[in-house]
Amino acid sequence: MKKIIIYRYHGHFEPNSHRIRLLKKIEPEVPVYGIYGGEPGFFQQANHKLGSLLENNYCLKVGDRYWKWLHADVTYKMWYQDVGRHVDFDRAYVMEWDLIIFAKLQSLFPKAREGNTLCTGLIPLEKVARYWYWMNPANRPRVEDFFKRVNKYYNKPFVKYASLGPGLSAPKSFFEGLTRLKIFEANITDEIKIPVWSQLLGIEPESNGLYRKWFSYHEMRFFNANITPVRPGTIGRELKKKHGRRAFHPFLEPETFEVLAEMYEKTNHHHATDAPKQPVGIVSPYTYKINCRLMEREKQKMAGS
């Protein structure tokens, strides 16, 4: 299987150069393609710093960063039309700039059933709707409007899922399929849209195992989308464990390649590969508020440190 990495970033050129070098150390045979989503005026600077590390460095020529954040599906379509269709690959692994890994892709990601899309924390939407930000009273109408538009235009059944954005992996057929779809520019997260587009293309989405339990304080220490940084000490302890975590988000420390490479070298590489996948869980409603208080306390600690 021919693999590629799609590296999404919008700034922080120096730290990103170190992180890309780490990826290339871990997967020296896997080419890395950049998608720059920052201010277009800084692309020349980005290319000067990172261009030599990337097979191609693609600039999204859209000024609105919020739009680009919400519409990764459209940006994947743009990238594929301009770059990806000319690239020989079977599967792409999307690495956000603040997602850091310390293991090979085949170890991190379960073997997908033939051609499936791997999403982070994939779970039926109804299971998390009570607490999830994107289903609060302000956002729910936009989400429901998106589903109505999809139903009206495509008239195909699909399961409503929730997921987390970092860690997407998809076959080439997914990216190629996006060019054939009418993609509604709905102002909602791709964490809802990507599983829908995948199903409409006949590509089953499944969980990749990177995020295991929604709204869990314990899980948040390793992987979260709440902009609560993962502590370096937490990563160090996990890397020493035989069955510890190897993917962390968000990691915001500006560590050099030398430091990151040393962390990788000290990793316990007897990490189990292709471990049996477990269904994504969710904390009990009875413990949700306790987990929220623990998360808030952790944020306060990080802010004060």
Lay out the secondary structure.
Elements: E1 3-9, H1 13-26, E2 32-36, H2 43-50, E3 56-59, H3 65-70, H4 72-82, E4 91-96, E5 100-101, H5 105-108, E6 117-124, H6 125-128, H7 140-154, E7 161-171, H8 172-178, H9 190-200, E8 205-207, E9 213-214, H10 217-220, H11 232-240, E10 247-248, H12 257-265, E11 281-282, H13 288-304
Parallel strand pairs: 1-2, 1-4, 2-3, 6-8, 9-11
Antiparallel strand pairs: 4-7, 5-10, 6-7
Helix pairs in contact: 1-2, 1-12
Descriptive notes:
The chain has about 300 residues and is α/β, with parallel strands linked by helices. The protein has one domain (about 5-305): Spore Coat Polysaccharide Biosynthesis Protein SpsA, Chain A. The protein is built from 13 helices and eleven strands. It has helices spanning about 15-25, 45-50, 65-70, 70-80, 105-110, 125-130, 140-155, 170-180, 190-200, 215-220, 230-240, 255-265, 290-305; strands spanning about 5-10, 30-35, 55-60, 90-95, 100, 115-125, 160-170, 205, 215, 245-250, 280. The strands form three sheets. Strands 3-2-1-4-7-6-8 form a seven-stranded mixed sheet. Strands 5-10 form a two-stranded antiparallel sheet. The protein has a two-stranded parallel sheet with strand order 9-11. Helix 1 (about 15-25) links the parallel strand 1 and strand 2 (about 30-35). Helix 1 runs parallel beside helix 2 and helix 1 (about 15-25) runs parallel beside helix 12. The radius of gyration is 19 Å and the shape is globular.
